[in-house]
Write a structure and sequence with these properties.
This protein is of the alpha/beta class. The chain folds into two domains: 137 residues, Aspartate Aminotransferase, domain 1, CATH 3.90.1150.10; 235 residues, Aspartate Aminotransferase, domain 2. Helix content is 46%, strand content 14%. It is built from 16 helices and 13 strands. Strands 2-10-9-8-7-3-4 form a seven-stranded mixed sheet, sandwiched between helices. The radius of gyration is 21 Å and the shape is globular. The protein starts with 11 loop residues before the first helix and ends with a helix. Bound molecules: pyridoxal-5'-phosphate. Pyridoxal-5'-phosphate (PLP) binds next to α5.
């Protein structure tokens, strides 16, 4: 039976990262996977995580199953982190959540709940979006529509196109939005534009589903959540998928939360029961370690301050890299790269063709996605000149 199954192609992003790992060129540059890399080119463990981990190891008395909704301290901490401590919806008890295996788990649980409520729901996704959104939502049986989002010519959000397309979204439809630091393009909505989306959701009755995987890495924890908080203030219902992978560096611990903003406290409780039953069908209980660390960090003032300081430093570094990369690229080519400085978070498209991205890979060992999406955090003082020179050469059509 199993011999019918054939080898599948490698994941496009992970496959490129693997190819970079085995590239013997000492100058190779890996800008593929969306993980934060320090100046030293490593993905660091947060100091607050290390401290929380030491305390946990000393205090832990059991490895028994987690409750189906996960750790209560974690859930409360995540609700406050995303919604803000003064959220009216939180105060009204209209918010509930369950701990999930990463932001991916939260997206999948959100999709399960949507499917239970409206099996025929169409999910509107941005063009482009993070490719993994499609299998995560589609495997539940939801169908897709696309709205225009990124304008490659202008290197920014095509908001007119987005609004025109979303005018066709109706009650019973879901609109998937990136809370901040859009993956793959780095172009985010302004607060005014979030307001327009809230107006449309109110008028047309669609349900926003906000994926916020990079809170704290764009402009800071509060500013990055301003859009999702605006929706939560204005609308009766909202689903949020949050992740601690990037902003706490807990990638491998699979730590996330599916958060439900509901019309009533009763409905918020009902949503937890729905989400738990959905989780039972897939993985039963969430993993403990990451959520126990995150819960501890979010509930301890000193650890929170320590974590926030380190996160702010990362955010400043990314924004500094954006400025340096823009000017280095402009030194080596006659193109305007100012959009890199305007965009937010880890990702930007460099605006190269797939053939140019391939030439960078084959001739210079500079690895980015074929779309020319780069992980800005993969740039550092040691590789920025090499990278900018290589991009300049490829843009001029020069051989290596
Ligand atoms: C847009 C977006 N959403 C969600 C996630 C989920 O991340 P994780 O499952 O690692 O928490 C990612 C990770 O790269 C992402 O880029």
């Amino acid at each position: 039976m199993l011999d019918k199954l054939t080898q599948l192609p490698e994941d496009s992003i992970l496959g490129l990262a693997a190819a970079c790992r085995v590239d013997p060129n000492p100058h190779k540059v890996d800008l593929t996977v969306g993980i934060y890399m320090s100046e030293a080119g490593i993905c660091p463990v947060f100091d607050a995580v290390r401290l929380a981990q030491q305390a946990l190891i000393e205090e832990e008395t059991t490895k028994a199953y987690m409750p189906p909704a996960g750790d209560a301290t974690f859930n409360t901490g995540m609700q406050r982190l995303v919604m803000g401590g003064d959220s009216p919806a939180l105060a009204a008890g209209r918010v509930s959540s369950i701990q999930t295996p990463g932001g991916c788990g939260a997206i999948r649980i959100g999709a399960e709940v949507i499917h239970a409520a409206a099996p025929d729901a169409r999910v509107w996704v941005s063009d482009p979006t993070w490719p993994v959104h499609i299998p995560l939502l589609g495997s539940v049986g939801l169908s897709f529509e696309t709205y225009r989002y990124y304008d490659p010519a202008e290197h920014g959000v095509n908001f007119e196109g987005m609004v025109a397309d979303l005018q066709q979204a109706r009650r019973g439809d879901v609109v998937l939005l990136h809370g901040c630091c859009h993956n793959p393009c780095g172009a985010d909505l302004s607060l005014e534009q979030w307001g327009t989306i809230a107006d449309m959701a109110e008028r047309q009755g669609f349900l926003p589903f906000v994926d916020i995987a990079y809170q704290g890495l764009g402009d800071g924890l509060e500013t990055d959540a301003a859009g999702v908080r605006l929706l939560a203030e204005r609308l009766p219902e909202l689903i949020i998928a949050a992740s601690c992978s990037k902003n706490m560096g807990l990638y491998r611990e699979r730590t996330g939360a599916a958060i439900f903003v509901c019309a009533s406290a009763d409905n918020a409780r009902a949503l937890v029961s729905q989400a738990q039953v959905a989780a039972r069908r897939i993985y039963s209980m969430p993993p403990a370690h990451g959520a126990l660390l995150a819960g501890r960090i979010l509930s301890d003032e000193a650890l929170t301050a320590n974590w926030e300081d380190e996160l702010q430093a990362m955010c400043r570094r990314i924004n500094g890299l954006r400025t340096s990369l823009m000017s280095k690229l402009q030194q080596h080519s006659d193109r305007d790269f100012s959009f890199i400085e305007r965009e937010k978070g880890m990702f930007s498209f460099l605006g190269l063709t797939p053939a140019q991205a391939l030439a960078l890979r084959e001739q210079h060992s500079v690895y980015m996605l074929d779309s020319s999406r780069i992980n800005v955090a993969g740039v550092n003082g040691a590789n920025i000149d090499y990278l900018a020179e290589a991009v300049g050469k490829v843009l001029r059509g020069e051989a290596a």
